Amino acid sequence: MKDTALVVVDMLYDFIDGSLACQGADEAVKNTRDYIEQSKIYPILFVRDHHPANHSSFFAQGGPWPPHCVQGTHGADIHVDLAPYASDDLTFFKGEDVDVEQYSGFEGLNPAGQSMREVLELMEISTVVICGIATEFCVFNTSRDLLGAGFKVIVKKDCLAWVDAEGHVKALKGMEALGIRVE
To answer: What's the pTM value of the predicted model, to 2 decimals?
Structure first.
């Protein structure tokens, strides 16, 4: 599976047990760690929501969300069980522009300024497996954008967490309708 990469979306403390804790987050982290250890899929790319404290998506600025994943806080850190698998060059930060909401990790950049697409193409990846939080927002948008860029996309259902159970189910059906494999 040299042509396959794993993308771990927003497995960050604020989405696990913090200000935007999602349903199923603890299980998603555990199942993702188990999947990494059993599947031996490498490379592993991480997506990190990474907001300035005054981000436009926060309540105080008229946005729909409580403050979350603020740069330099514990809430923005990758869960300790997954952090050993993360590397700087394969971590993509999104939401850093105070005025722009970015749900898709495909819009993020690594510290070298490279996009996920650039890095995946350099590594000659054709298939991407997705684990992450939250199904209805960042997982859906990242998966859709990867598919639109020509990658085969597989979403691991037991490695997801969600804001709302109904939204989770709707997002899974929506991904399948687009041609994304959900397993």
So the answer is: 0.97
